[in-house]
Amino acid sequence: MSQLPPAVPGMSLSDVETPALLIDLDAFERNVAYLATRLNGTGVRLRPHAKTHKSAIIALRQMAAGAVGVCCQKGAEAEALVYAGVPDVLVSNQVVGPRKLTRLAALARQARVGVCVDHPRNVADLDAAARAFGVRLDVLVEVNVGMDRCGVEPGEPVVALAQVVAAYHNLRFAGLQAYQGSAQHVRRYEDRLAAIDTAAEQIKVTLRLLERAGLTAETVSGGGTGSFEFELQTGVWNELQCGSYVFMDADYLKNLRADGAPGSIFEPSLFILATVMSRPAPERAIVDVGLKSLSVDSGLPHVVGIEGVAYVGASDEHGKLAVQGAPAEVELGRKLRLIPGHCDPTVNLHDWYVCYRGDYVEAVWPITARGAVT
Amino acid sequence: MSQLPPAVPGMSLSDVETPALLIDLDAFERNVAYLATRLNGTGVRLRPHAKTHKSAIIALRQMAAGAVGVCCQKGAEAEALVYAGVPDVLVSNQVVGPRKLTRLAALARQARVGVCVDHPRNVADLDAAARAFGVRLDVLVEVNVGMDRCGVEPGEPVVALAQVVAAYHNLRFAGLQAYQGSAQHVRRYEDRLAAIDTAAEQIKVTLRLLERAGLTAETVSGGGTGSFEFELQTGVWNELQCGSYVFMDADYLKNLRADGAPGSIFEPSLFILATVMSRPAPERAIVDVGLKSLSVDSGLPHVVGIEGVAYVGASDEHGKLAVQGAPAEVELGRKLRLIPGHCDPTVNLHDWYVCYRGDYVEAVWPITARGAVT
Question: Chain A residues with CB inside 8 Å of B94's CB?
């Protein structure tokens, strides 16, 4: 049920079938290189989050630039990437249920696999699955550093769970998963900084308690595209999990920098190519891109480079543009680019990346782990 | 890149891998039968919208119950369904661009294919594509009956475009596409009724003008799950396009009936099966279903049958439940069902329907046109 690719290499961008998910390769490569260079010599490893791109090709590019492996959010995602050649994955999440644990332990025979825990019963189940396959899994204890989603509270609860992990033969206590997800999209620079400083203090206290209990958190993993500069400054994290930096999205681009202006050191490299399919009124144009080819959970997409034109409403298969003036770019049949509001769930709607440089398609990459939600 | 099915027939529902998209076959079959029976003897045909279910199996079930064919919203969707055996599809939408028109005309050699138009240039392109493949396409002129999306305005603009269509040799003017989409989710019964009455008046005027111009609108197609009772009453529409009625969703179930209470004659038959994957605090449970397995554009999902438990937040792969008391149904590892806020874009996130009856899986159906957005 995979769809036909909307393009072939060599094709002009204007011939690409729409909707299509585009990668501007120049911008993408600059983003990958920037973060790799930024971490050079800091002693902090990069383990980018593959939940953003779900692509083995991109994961291997990131590793070629220095990343130690990637993060996944689901076991099925890890399977898809490992089967396509990625040698080291951390499922930065809990894996719960006998079938899922069996699959994860089986995968650990094919690649280096780590996983996170926040409950002693899950730790016991994980050890049993690992034992059945004769593997030893790296286990990080997830700490709630302010996101109030999964994870145990900082301090003694972490020590207690780490001791449970350490007591099992087929598990290795490898450190902490400490991602402050709610800090990522906080607009003000100072507020993001404050959230990460608070998290850093909680981790420091926890690390001291672990040490006192004779346990070593070899890895402290976390950080995201919106906050990694702050995690770096603290010296607490030694592994960063940024994902969106390869693509960026309209929501991340609204974050404010230290100077108070919106923007990022990373460039938007992910676009949806759309066709104007109806031009029913001067002030209204309809494109063929709606909820089934972009996710609007973090806001509507941004129309690239057309003065006076805004995407103002999405229905299942349609996008409504409000048009000022009579720009030629929105005449019937014209193609235009949109920056999606939120890159991760948008990528998950597509089977192919159409990768271009300048005006030409250079590659068409499968989205290996599209729909890998189990 | 299609995912492994999360179940096999005969499996107990409690063994199904999560997230999984479930169909309660009993409820689904009652929904299909109810609408078929309701239209019996009215002279109004049913052409259900397949953009909801994207399944050839369901389309053929609907046709076995009396539907004359199905609607699609995209050419690629029509292809997927025709290739899987559906003999009659109406693309209830504009198809714009040379590649898309070529594919549509080619498809018309394999099945009965209709399409909608709202622009004379697109009509000319459509005729050229049809001529190249030696086919004659049924063409409906789309009328804007209040949704303000695609479509020409009622009255003379419809006549003018219908005349353009009728002048081409490889096109047949087959009638009007008149869908009042914005009426579907208006909560108050009287307001939905009023919107459809207004649309009906606009169509009546248009039909008189067409007749005066010597043109016959053989088909007047439209109507949806939220409004079809009203379209039926008017006597103006002779073909209904309801889609969501097979599944329903949390948003449609909020519509008010004539007695002022929320609810529908159709039953929810589509669910997402979720696993409680973290239980970090008494008042918080986390399930493994987030934005990548359900669409939140029309609101958050409804948790089925657990007192005091509500789905209050979605991130990419997580759902946050607010928990009152200590219900056993949300203990770690337990599975529960969610009614998605919006069925159509949720279905598009999955590769398989897990169809169950009682406690057992009876069938696993591919979602034939998942991701068919071009």
Answer: 277-278
